[in-house]
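Contributing new records

If you add data, match the layout below exactly. Sequence lines come first and carry their own label; structure lines follow with theirs. Keep one chain per record. Anything else will be rejected by the validation script.
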Amino acid sequence: MPAPSKYNPAYHDDWAWSLAIKGATNDEIAEAFGITVRTFIRWKQQYKSLADAVAQGKDIADAKVEKSLYQRAVGYTVTDTEKIIEHDPKDGSVKPIRVKNTEKHIAPDTMACMYWLNNRKRAHWSQRQEVALSAGDDSEDVLIYLPANGRDAEDGQQQGS
C-alpha cells in the first residue's frame, strides 16, 4: 500500500516514531513515506506532533546506543543457556535432559573507553594537543592543534619528517 501524499497525524506520527526508534534517518523516513526529504522537513516544521514523534523516537534510539557504548566501555556479564536435548527412542519425542546456565563476563573495550572519555571528559582525555607558540615580542600567541598520535590531519604524514 503506497503512503498517502498528504500528512495524516494518526498515520504518519506513529509510523515516523517507529522508524526513528529503529535508527532511521530523515532521508529514510521520507523514503518510507514516499515523499521528498524537503517535504518531510517541511511537515516537521508545520506539525509539532510529527516533530515530537520523530524526536522522541530518535532520543530512545540514541539512549539505547549510549547504553550499549557504556556497557562496552565498562564491561558486562551475560548469561549463556545451553540445553542438552535427548530423543526418546520409544515415541521419537524431544525433551531437554539438562539445562546449563553459565555467566560470561565481557571485558571492557579499550576503544569504547577512549571514545567515551574523549567525548565526555574532553578537557582531560582529548586526542588533540594544544601548543602555544610565541614570537617573543608583544604579538599574540598562536595556538596550533596537533593530533595526539603525531600525524597531520590533512595529509596523514608524520610530523617532523
